[in-house]
Amino acid sequence: MSTEVSSKAQHYLLVSFLVIAYWCYFLGNELFQTLKLYNAGDKFYHILETTKASNDTESTTSHSLPPMTTSPIPKIMHRMWKNASILDTNNPSIPTNWTRAFHNCNSIYTHRNWTTILWTDATIRTLLENHYPHFIPVFDSYRYDIQRVDASRYFIIYHYGGVYLDLDIGCQKSRDLTDLIHSMEEDGVGAMLPMTSPVGFSNDVLFASKHNPFFERLMDALPRRNKWYGSPYLSVMYSTGPMFLSLEYYRMIPEQRQELFALSPDLYSEKGTRYFRHLRGSTWHGSDAHLVQWLIRYWGVVLVVALLVFVSLSRRKRRRIGGARRESKPHRLSL
After folding, report:
1. Which domains does the chain have, with CATH numbers?
2. Could you read off the pLDDT of 178-187 as tens digits, one per residue?
3. What's the CA angle centered on 217, arms 27 and 197, to 5 degrees?
4. How far apart are CA 147 and CA 235, in angstroms?
5. What is the distance between the alpha carbons of residues 178 and 181, in angstroms, rounded to a whole number?
6. Which residues touch 249 (CB under 8 Å, ≥6 apart)?
7. What pTM was estimated for this model as a whole?
């Protein structure tokens, strides 16, 4: 019985080891950079936080900032859907809460003199063909539609500037994104990304000035990162998604990082102070997503498992070698 249990344990350890080795092979340096960021925690973000945008929530939510004169970030809200059907409030193919959130944001910010641009597959392709034709081969080579969606937002926000919001992001009527732009203007910062858990930044909300250097960096890096990372979820995350954006940020020198703000969790996701409503999203996640997220969250457990597998296989190999030597030893004749 104990031998059977031991055999099963070794089998599970071996499978775990092969899974880990598989993803290590495809992720390579990206995996270690991700673990490094996860272990570092919030201390990486301190240089991004400012009194207006993060630490002094009360000042940004009380509308006490001076009137805005000019801003490097235009008051344009970019949204994206495959076609114009999101404009139809009764379209059953689109989540109802997404449609309502889109029209709610549009109504709120129209009264605040913002312009909302709805990008579709057709208009995105027109933008790329007219201004960035060199990227078309990469754009067409992506395996998944979500990769094209991710890449498109970087080109849009770079070309026009403004604020990009995913359709699963809603607006708070009691909050005004112009206040956040005020804070960025006062410190001469041209881009802002939302901090997310457990590590890095999200790309569902983006602030940027027109032709911002950080988004130019992302555009230049997209072709280099267009490869298979071991699973659909990881390939999206590291080729175009949030981990792609996060690692490109951390590849910059500290002086370049100071040109960006972090949208802290109290303004991004915490109830009572947040500027956004987060609806149910992640529709592109496959069956591998939960497993990958678990592995990243419990990477310490994963490393222990890998060590146990290594030790177990090493001992098993030594026993086999020792047994083979004993069996091959010649018998002595005794008189």
Report:
1. 45-286 (3.90.550.10)
2. 999 998 988 8
3. 55
4. 9
5. 5
6. 193, 200, 201, 214, 257, 260
7. 0.75
